[in-house]
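Now for a specimen:

…
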Amino acid sequence: MLKEGPGKLAGDKYDEAKLKKELEGLPKGLSAEEAYNRLIYLLAEDYGPVVKEIENFRPAFDVGDLEGSGKASEEKGKKPDRVNVSILLDASGSMAGKVNGRVKMDLAKEAIRDFVSNLPEQSRVSLRVYGHKGRNSQKDKEVSCNSTEEVFVLGEYDESRFSKALGRFKPTGWTPLASAIQGAQQDLSAEKGENVKNVVYVVSDGIETCGGDPVKAAKALHESDIQAVVNIIGFDVDNAGQRALKKVAEAGGGEYQTARTGEDLRRLFEKNRNSIGNLFRTTGRVGNLYEMNAYKLNMIDEIENLLGSNPFVGSKFLEVYDRENKRLMEAANLLVSLEKIDEKNRDALREKIGHRLKLMQQYRDEKKEELHERLDQALEKARRQMEENIDEALNP
């Protein structure tokens, strides 16, 4: 049916006078079938161009790499967020205690080393230690409470330098937690903006012992323009200590987690490493999903432009079969006025023309559904590729 045209007077060749002349030349007493065939010969539209467009509709969304390389990405120039990970390690005397025969400080250093060595490459790391000077005696309290130092300055992770930084201190003194959090705020002071995320992890086995207010410090850091999130990992902490540290984490907009053993500590750091990865994953995903949604809307518009059914808006296919149907119906009426067919055959002819219209509409609906399926498949393929690209970027 779609290949019957173009008719002699179809499309731009249509001329009422020429059509009337053609019909006047037909014999009287035509059957509905004979009349229909003659009208199709004259008026069947050329569906070839629009059908070719429909068949050539092959959507394919290029997700590019993690930063995006599609057209929308090029226009926006959006890059993944930079995540700064600041670790505050308690080096007070209590960290010299043992858990299952192992020194807590040794277990903490091992877990931290493993944590930072497996962070996404886009992450930057800082290590600040506190309570690492003096002893936990009253005589050394002032020295110890004033001791907090960024031993690994915020930057890209370097295994050799980070290991050396971990080896520079031992657990000896008091617990100036508030001062350490304030120090972290200074470390991150230049890290601001919508494309920057700052995350602080405090590893401690006890509460503030230097008279500071870690809750106030955490709240100030979180609510500053740095907008850092302060998480606390309590290592072998008693119930009272857990309650106090939990308040610090809540004030810092973060989470309190507890570890009883070295294995617990390692497991928690693995969980937190995945959370850091998800920050990048979310950024890459959001950027591509934004582009993908825009692409989807454009393709839906294209499908509607080809196969839409709204007569007020129109579509390429609808315009062709609607024009054809109107001309066929007008020609059928003209055959009656010219007494080429009787009323019985006129009604049968109209039914045949109406049936042709229904078949065209059925084709339109089927093809429209098919094109939407092609689009869905293309977008699903793009989503899978996006996840693979992000996984590769986070786990090179």
About this structure: Confidence is low (pLDDT under 50) at residues 65-80. The chain has two domains: 11-61+291-394, 81-260.
